[in-house]
Amino acid sequence: MSNKTKATIAVTVLASSVYLSGCGLFGGDKEKVDPPQDVSYLKEGQTVETSAGKDGKGKAASSEANEQTQPTELYLINKDGYVMAQTLQLPKTEGIAKEALEYLVANGPVSEMLPNGFRAVLPADTEVLGVDIKDGVAVADFSKEFSTYQAEDEQRILQAVTWTLTQFDSVKRVELRVNGTPLTEMPVNGTPINSNGLSRADGINMDTSGVADITNTHPVTVYYLSQNGEGYNYVPVTKRVDNSVKDDVAAVVNELVNGPGYNSNLVTDFLPDAKLVDAPTIEDGTVTLNFNESILGSLKEKKVSEYLMNSLVLSLTEQPMIQKVAIEVNGSTELVNEDGKSITEPVSRPEKVNTGSF
């Protein structure tokens, strides 16, 4: 894909950004396992006043439904084979980590909830025997049916289970067992499993295109866009960066600008001539980035695409030392989003990803 083609795609994405209001992307901090949080969500376009019908029953029913469910990220497989989050409302329970894994099982309870083009990752009839969380490690124990997957899904299973469980603050690493026996490698293709457990640092949707010597590289994860109907979802992709690159923040920005692999069916909302004009600075968990004008969707009004901003925040907050992102354009913080709202304040990572239905 040429830079000119990527620029055309980026303009198309910018034109489509009006759909972001339906994505419900930005919220607060990640959900904790104990206890589940009470979170109320309104449907797209609703307000507190309009969510009820004329008789007021709509509002009461919506409130009752939200008291019985909780938004949870399930890492599923999309039509292009990528593992990515879809935030679905699961029945509220104290054992949310175990329940989340149960909703990854094919032909299981997720079947009636699967978004178009998505499929569950764990083999049908797999039982989740337990999820024990202690000292940041989640030990997930499965029945023997766990081992009946297709070989091409082996990496996807590792990634989906790891990223689904590590959405919770109490989980940093994941260990796998089958009928109580720890797995040191996956049962079909023999992928080794780190004795210290699996983590997000192991990557997801790995893209090694253009890398000649992978041993002289290290991973960074960035979020590209995948079209889903009339809107877009955010897809995490782990790229390989040469070890000579010492600034991973700048490396993430560069990968977002360079875009995904040519045959990926993913796009970026960054124009190819976007770049940092100063080195990134990090203070108290907030990274400040000073860009040139090529990140603006409107030079006159200084508008920043929300797809661009969301991809940037999701990507950079995968870095352990970053909780917020602040941007400038040639030193100016007088920037607005497409709704005309100021974005001069640093932006936090969303509570949940891909919450909308397009």
Total domains: 2
Query: What's the β-strand tally?
Result: 14
Terminal CA distance: 26 Å
The best one-word shape is globular
Query: Count of helices?
Result: 6
The chain-level mean pLDDT equals 85
Order of helices and strands: HHEEHEEHEEEEHEEEEHEE
Query: Quick one: biggest sheet?
Result: 4 strands, mixed
User: What's the Cα radius of gyration?
Assistant: 21 Å
The unreliable regions are 1-59
In short:
InterPro entries: GerMN. The chain has 358 residues and is of the alpha+beta class.
Question: Your description of this structure?
Answer:
- This is Germination protein M.
- The protein has 358 residues and is of the alpha+beta class.
- The protein folds into two domains: 83-201, 2-Layer Sandwich (GMP Synthetase, Chain A, domain 3); 214-347, no CATH class.
- Helix content is 18%, strand content 24%.
- The protein is built from six helices and 14 strands.
- It has a four-stranded mixed β-sheet.
- Strand 11 (296-298) and strand 12 (303-304) form a beta hairpin.
- Helix 5 runs antiparallel to helix 6 (306-316).
- The longest helix has 13 residues, at 3-15.
- The model is unreliable at 1-59 (pLDDT under 50).
